[in-house]
Amino acid sequence: MHETKIGPLNCWIQGDPETANILAVFAHGFGAPGTDLVALGEELFQIDEELVGEVAFVFPAAMLSLDHMGMPGGRAWWEINMMKLQQMLETNQIEELVTAEPPGLREARELYLDFLGDLCREGKKEFGQLVLGGFSQGAMLSTDLFMRHSATPAGLCLFSGTTICLNDWREQVGGKSKLPILQSHGRQDPILPFEAAEILRDLLNSSGQDVNFLPFNGPHTIPYEALNETAALLKSVL
Prior knowledge:
By secondary structure, this protein is an alpha/beta fold. It is built from eight helices and ten strands. Helix 1 (39-47) links the parallel strand 3 (22-27) and strand 4 (55-60).
């Protein structure tokens, strides 16, 4: 594992991006440090040793610091009004949650695309050799990029993400090529409702995708069974 800067973002890399066949790029969630997901690389190598040398893991740190919000070391892809989100959850305003476009999403997506372009150039890879994903806000960013970008990644791994920009996503998802998609979500998630995750699953499936949907009894987290399925997805795209 080594830390480096690729384009606009600091990131941590496990494996060799130039010699690997697939780059798995996992974006962390809101308020987490840039290192939040780096342990997943070693865990996935342990689950399936055949991934070693074939896959390189890239864990970028979001560009926004949340020190000013009283979250030292925390970072975000875009800022979230946590009080408003909590009010929406308490009043069960699922429709407002899934249709809203968060302020700052467009800027985050454009910057992330720049980062991925630089990553592909440095690693001598095509966009179709990337598996995109992440946790929570990182999963949302990866999903939004998949919906709006013309190029198709090798796969998606979405841990405890949710639906946003539903009307836009519904218009854009129809012409997408079919690819392996893993989506996991806790039935007792107190932060991003399970029902909103089901809306994303149904949207993807209705557009011709075949989502491997992994519900689990638990909160806002990544269960071990999701890592097993992630290893299987990575193996399938090699």
